[in-house]
Amino acid sequence: MHDLKPLTPLGSTTAQIDRFAGLTISECPDWALASLAARRGREQDTATAAQNLLGTALPDVAATATSGDFTAFWTGPQQWMIEAPHDSHEELATEVKSAVGDAASVTEQTDGWCRFDLEGTRCHDVLERLCNADTRAMTQGQVTRTRLEHLGCFLICRTKDAHFSVIGPRSSAGSIHHALTVAAASAI
Amino acid sequence: MIINHPLLGPRDAQEFTFLGDASLIDRPDWEAEDAAEKFYEYAYLRDNPAGLHRELWFHETGDRSWLVVTRNTLTHEITDVEMASDVARSKGRSK
């Protein structure tokens, strides 16, 4: 029997946590992701089926919706990403697909992305040096896609002024982590 | 330059990539008698107006939607921004 050990996006067996005065940057490997795209003419069916699964309506433009284990965030017109704890929803894409049937297309995304959470009052000082997003204006539950360290990343405001998630391409996790920690070290 | 995205509001032009003339939406009918001539025009011939120009922009580091941007080539002033999908549908495409 092989003894396979899962690695985090940064290549370790434990999640990296970097602490600064007023800011904690933590690697968050414990989340499953699946993308959901409504098929043409089936937008209403997708909305209904997704609501039944998630327990909340799919979020509108640039918004997120959370209910129980699930968070859905808007990624584009009639497209969303669904996020849930990996331990309890390892097969998230299958779960979403069986809920929406042929009304929408679902793609497994879990290991395509890495997530870094910025928590603390100094999060704006880091983010404003790295990306275009006006994080000070973002309210809880807002999401935007922005360029960070030359990479297209989703930026979610979990708590206004205090907690942001950066979700970027997993293969560039090292570059994102480098950008975040260098900016934090220089700003704080 | 700022592009006023119909869904997301004002966004910096560096988030977008430029494709070209919005007439690229009007792909000719490949079954038409004069398809060869039409495709030659579609692929190679462009107007080069000094003034208002409708062009396709892609929100690459944003929501990845295609936009039809009406831009004045003399002043760079942007007077209109539409979702390309809406423009295509209004022409009877993507039914």
Question: How does this model look, in words?
Answer:
With 188 residues, chain A is an alpha+beta fold. Chain A is built from four helices and eleven strands, in the order E-E-E-H-E-E-E-H-E-E-H-E-E-E-H. Chain A has helices at residues 43-54, 92-100, 123-130, 173-187, and strands at residues 17-20, 23-27, 31-38, 64-67, 70-76, 79-85, 104-108, 113-119, 143-148, 151-159, 163-169. In chain A, the strands form two sheets. Chain A has a six-stranded antiparallel β-sheet with strand order 1-2-8-11-10-9, covered by helices on one side. In chain A, strands 4-5-6-3-7 form a five-stranded antiparallel β-sheet, covered by helices on one side. In chain A, a hairpin with a 2-residue loop joins strand 9 and strand 10. In chain A, helix 3 crosses helix 4 (173-187). The termini of chain A are far apart. The mean pLDDT of chain A is 96. Chain B is of the alpha+beta class and 95 residues long. Chain B has a single domain (2-27, 36-90), classed as Folate-binding fold, CATH 3.30.2270.10. In chain B, 18% of the residues lie in helices and 35% in strands. Chain B is built from two helices and six strands; from the N terminus they run E-E-E-H-E-E-E-H. Chain B has helices at 35-44, 84-90; strands at 2-5, 9-12, 17-21, 52-58, 66-72, 78-83. In chain B, the strands form two sheets. Chain B has a four-stranded antiparallel β-sheet with strand order 3-4-5-6. A two-stranded antiparallel ribbon of chain B has the order 1-2. Chain B is globular, with a radius of gyration of 14 Å. At the A-B interface, strand 5 and strand 9 of A face loops of B.
Question: How are the SSEs ordered, and which strands pair?
Answer:
The complex is a heterodimer of chains A (188) and B (95).
Chain A: E1 17-20, E2 23-27, E3 31-38, H1 43-54, E4 64-67, E5 70-76, E6 79-85, H2 92-100, E7 104-108, E8 113-119, H3 123-130, E9 143-148, E10 151-159, E11 163-169, H4 173-187
Antiparallel strand pairs in A: 1-2, 2-8, 3-6, 3-7, 4-5, 5-6, 8-11, 9-10, 10-11
Helix pairs in contact in A: 3-4
Chain B: E1 2-5, E2 9-12, E3 17-21, H1 35-44, E4 52-58, E5 66-72, E6 78-83, H2 84-90
Antiparallel strand pairs in B: 1-2, 3-4, 4-5, 5-6
